[in-house]
């Protein structure tokens, strides 16, 4: 099979992580997986055998350049994409092609596969609203550009035999914007055993965010909210990732008098990320444009309560009052209040939320995701997995709280 999009490892973002996990999972089941991806800086165009998550993949790297209006995004040369995609497709002769973005690489894969009668599966990770600030267009044109972008991707998605996106809410949004129907809601998936929950009381109050340090994530709201948390809680904020507004956030933290409590670990290894998540007290996701949020899923797999904006797909993961709290998007006082609640609660109550995160994440197992995509690749009928977990009753929550108290008492005795 052939897979491709406009971002792939070593990029660190949700779409790239999804492709790595899915491609490696498909390869682990005996399939020959080829990827078309941009060549990172210093890497020449060519075909390479690369190891990802313990699996060997054939990656066809194309010459690329850094998009000047974005801090890390590398783009392939658009006037070469159809030629390169046709050349690779004719060499590989895939049974199925999987597009993971429609802009450049995905456009080439879809158009050339369609010409050759190859089955196409498309997955949407795209919202024009997330990228438009990185274009040269003046702000007053953004509504028109966004409308044109949706029209453009709709034309390509019509060529696909099946269209997927990570959540039900994202599927409904995609259908509304494109007019297409029967969009499958298939979680990006995660392997929970890769992460380590810690149910002991933490030595300090650490709030963690993981993702791109960029405007679409609403991180200035998070920094402002931390400044409004009662000083005696000594809340520490770790902003893990890289991006174009890091300097702006540093200046904001300095201006608010919390520079000593806002930390920027940068891009970290998978091992270091898991350590940061395990030692944290609560995960914060203020973004209003998440189609699923793999970072939030990683936090839940680490047994963290989550405070998230009540926007797009985040309510699929965060059940208010159960594994964390939702807050009205862009409401900084509400964000500060929800974070304060989690940081102030007794450990036995917080442990109930931690275990709820693990429970709510169980339906997002990566093996289920891989199996469904295998069936789509073969042209079989699929039923979207049910990822909504019924809420715990007040009685069961109290039982969990009592068990947590008893466990702590036994350890103390």
Question: Can you put this structure into words, describing what you see?
Answer:
It is a single chain. By secondary structure, the protein is of the alpha/beta class. It folds into 2 domains: 2-160, 3-Layer(aba) Sandwich (Rossmann fold), CATH 3.40.50; 192-362, 3-Layer(aba) Sandwich (Rossmann fold), CATH 3.40.50.2000. The chain is 42% helix and 17% strand. It has an 8-stranded mixed beta sheet with strand order 3-4-2-1-7-8-9-10, sandwiched between helices. A hairpin with a 2-residue loop joins strand 3 (46-52) and strand 4 (55-62). Helix 7 (219-228) runs parallel beside helix 8 (246-256). The protein is globular and about 65 Å long. The mean pLDDT is 89. GO terms for molecular function: hexosyltransferase activity. It holds the Pfam family Glycos_transf_1. Residues 202-355 form the Glycosyl transferase family domain. Keywords: Glycosyltransferase, Transferase. This is D-inositol 3-phosphate glycosyltransferase.
Q: How would you concisely characterize the structure shown here?
A:
The chain is α/β, with parallel strands linked by helices and 413 residues long. It is 42% helix and 17% strand.
